[in-house]
Amino acid sequence: MTPSPRLLLTIDYESWFAPSRRYDFLPPETRFNLDEGLSRQAIDLILDIFGDSKVTFYLVGEMVGWYPELPEKISKAGHEVGFHCHIHRRLDDANEIEKDLIASAGWIQKYNVRGYRAPMINTVEGVYPLLAKHNFLYSSSQYAPAGVAVKKGDVWEIPVSTLPLLKMPDEFNAPRYMNLKLVAGGEFPYGSSFTSGLFRRTVYKIIEREFKAGKSPVIFLHPYEIVTPAGYPRRFVVDMLHHPLLFPFTFNKSNFLKDLLKNFPTSTMQDYIKELQ
Length: 277
Ligand SMILES: [Zn+2]
What we know:
Number of domains: 1
Order of helices and strands: EHHEHHEHHEHEEEEEHEHHEHHHH
Radius of gyration: 17 Å
Bound molecules: zinc ion
Oligomer: single chain
Low-confidence stretches: none
Strand order of the largest sheet: 3-2-1-11
């Protein structure tokens, strides 16, 4: 059954430095200090913006350790709490993925977390049996055209949306992340906040068109794109000098978000999947 169209708006709840790989292997204490409490301060402001619109938040596990009230507040406001890995970094090895999952097992069970989003939307096929083993219902860790929903054993993959400009791809095997191969294959990854940072109006128009075609786009934003951290993007300048492509992640997208919420119905990923089954 095709669910009624809605915007599957998701928030990858991570600290301001997460787009840069420079922080991935620092001692956890150092990352905690770098956050300076910003992710805790942002949550109330962000929840306010959503009002009655229900969405999905994928939390970085170590941040739940820093600020245990995060999943509590999100779930009390009626949103879905999902998992964005215990430590925000690229994981390509099934053993490493499972170790990371187990590190967050406590709060995953407590909040009945059923949704997984790999950092950088980059994972491997081996993730799906692991997610099934740990009671996950779905993953959203690939890029693919809106409307694609693939069952991988017992686990759904509901990808972040792309617009296929040439032809509909016919294979949805991880990894399918934002790289030259994806873009050269004619897929415009409008679900990424990188893309909405650069082409806000185009992305809005694509979403409008997808709705008319009865589709439910999956898009993501980050907390630091909704509530700009103090001293940002200054604190990110060194990273941007090395990787200018990080620049769109520093744009404030709160007006874009408010526009979307005003004009499109939303739902959590889990509510969408209920209608798929
Ligand atoms: Zn992320």
